[in-house]
Amino acid sequence: MEEELKSFVKVWVLAITSLCYSYYIAAKIPKGFLRLLSLLPVISLFLFLPMNLSSHSYILATSIFLSWYANFKLLLFSFDHGPLSPPPPQLLHFISIASLPIKIKRYPPQDKPQTSFLGTIILAIKVAITIMLFEAYNYGKHLNTNIVLALFPIQFFFETECLYAVFQIPPKFFFGFELEPQFNEPLLANSLQDFWGRRWNLMSSDVLRLLVYNPFRPISKRIIGDRWKSLPAILVTFFVSGLMHELIYYHLTHLPPTWEATCFFVMHGICVDVEIVMKKKKVILIGRKWQFLNVISRLLVLGFLLVTARWILFAPLLRNGIYEKAYIEYSMAVNFAKGVLHLY
């Protein structure tokens, strides 16, 4: 555990050093191809850094934050787009924005940010649920295997939201940033478009929209016209998201991609396109033809997400025992905390 922590520190020291280069040198190069060329060594390095780790938690954080988010932000920065443009006045701000899943709120001068007490309570409940789901694995021998595995997508949804909230604490505390929430009650989504575009993991949505969706829309418009230009752009965006998940899985398992994650996201991209076509065609269920009641639509969306995530998206992780490794690491962390706090 100690050696793995040292490796994790070394990886992130190297990453921070690379971001210092990006801030002090690459940022001074004119935007466009030359700046992109100067950033390619950093982008390439970030793709391989997670391979130096063995802990599931460290790999997951490094792969998502550096190989995906930081690289996408640097690609956008090459052309003066995205959250890193214009460069923040301070180096530490640049590093935080580049390497963490955060988006700074931009308030009008007269507005004052307010902390949501209810939001804090809801997050605490989600943390408690996540812990209970982890603890449920203690009783895996006494439960049906399918029940235990069915809990994995639910636990993953809550765990991801809680971890992102934790990573927002340092920039809030040290720099006084007011940050956009990265999740907007995703389990209340009443459509897949609502879930993926406005509720789940908004950092991923932002970088994918800026780097893939927005540039591809004009191409779509020239091919199929203005009305349906979003459909191919959405499908390509989901495809790229699938490729990034394949990269994360490769970092976790060190095995060749099975393309199940890509199939999952392409399938959901097709479903989102179908939803958009139905809305534009004004197809309505219940009432006239095609409109669902809110509660029913939410249950259907949640059910579809959980079933497809369990059997397609998470299949490679479950097949290779990643959830078991995650639980072992969780148990080690809990035991370590108990030892520090003298709670036996």
Give the strand tally: 0
Low-confidence runs (pLDDT<50, min 5 residues)? 108-115, 286-290
**What is the overall number of helices?**
14
The rough form would be described as globular
Mean pLDDT: 84
Order of helices and strands: HHHHHHHHHHHHHH
Distance between the termini: 21 Å
Q: Structural class, from helix and strand content? A: mainly alpha
Largest sheet: none
- Rounded to an integer, what's the Rg over CA atoms? 21 Å
The percent range for strand residues is under 5%
Could you characterize the architecture of this molecule?
The protein is mostly helical and 344 residues long. The protein contains 14 helices and no strands. α1 packs across α4, α3 crosses α9 and α6 packs across α12. The radius of gyration is 21 Å and the shape is globular.
Blueprint (SSEs and pairs):
Elements: H1 2-24, H2 33-48, H3 56-77, H4 91-99, H5 117-136, H6 145-167, H7 169-175, H8 192-199, H9 202-224, H10 230-253, H11 260-280, H12 294-313, H13 315-319, H14 322-341
